[in-house]
Amino acid sequence: MEASKLPAEQFPALSARPGLQHCFTTRVRDIDVQADKTEALERLDHAHRAVRSALGLGTRPFASAQQVHGRGIGVIDAPMAGDKCFDACDGLITNQEDVCLGIYVADCCALYLVDTVRPAIGLLHSGRKGTELGIATEAIRLMGECFGSQPEDLLVQLSPCIRPPHYEVDFAATIVASCRAAGVTQIHDSGVCTACDLARYYSYRAEKGKTGRMLALLALAP
């Protein structure tokens, strides 16, 4: 299936990078997500699996995170035998080609990190709390420690997320500032507010907690 026909979008800065697969799912029409997170994700699972398959990632081990609004990051530096959810983590980094990273968001930012020199990537869940705790800075540090990534070689992409005036804190701006302070110069922000377009995105704040989740996907191409 062509990417343009999927309930998903892609970011030009990432699409321009060779050896990379990514997307950010959008609202899936005709699926009732007026439920808590667990039930909403179960209802969306088939659609999200279809997106992964269409991108050629359906047979890869799927790595996700528990997402506890912290700064914990799961490191995948060896092949995964099957799908795995990393406990007490809000981010994932890897240098493995045979794995697909996934992070779920509905107002929080999905932060994509790509080493433009080495085969290394990261995907983070960064909302208000995770941003305040410095999850982006921690991921940049860990990518250097584990994979030799240099901040000046990293490309960072911010997904759509909630922004003022729909939210009292502009944590997207804080993410950008923290990445710059860590030495990253290639920073791209979608600039899109999830609460501004409920026909396209889910918004936890605007829909009072009963809503679905967008799925951010990132993988190295073999």
Q: In brief, what are we looking at here?
A:
The protein has 222 residues and is of the alpha/beta class. It has helices spanning 12-15, 37-54, 128-132, 135-147, 171-181; strands at residues 8-9, 20-25, 62-65, 73-76, 84-86, 91-94, 100-105, 109-115, 121-126, 154-158, 186-189, 214-220.
How is this structure best described in words?
The protein has 222 residues and is α/β, with parallel strands linked by helices. The protein has a single domain (17-220), classed as CNF1/YfiH-like putative cysteine hydrolases (4-Layer Sandwich). The chain is built from five helices and twelve strands. The strands form two sheets. It has a six-stranded mixed β-sheet with strand order 1-2-12-7-3-5, with helices on one face. Strands 4-6-9-8-10-11 form a six-stranded mixed β-sheet. The mean pLDDT is 96.
Any descriptors?
globular, 5 helices, 222 residues, alpha/beta, CNF1/YfiH-like putative cysteine hydrolases
Topology of this structure?
Layout: E1 8-9, H1 12-15, E2 20-25, H2 37-54, E3 62-65, E4 73-76, E5 84-86, E6 91-94, E7 100-105, E8 109-115, E9 121-126, H3 128-132, H4 135-147, E10 154-158, H5 171-181, E11 186-189, E12 214-220
Parallel strand pairs: 3-5, 3-7, 4-6, 10-11
Antiparallel strand pairs: 1-2, 2-12, 6-9, 7-12, 8-9, 8-10
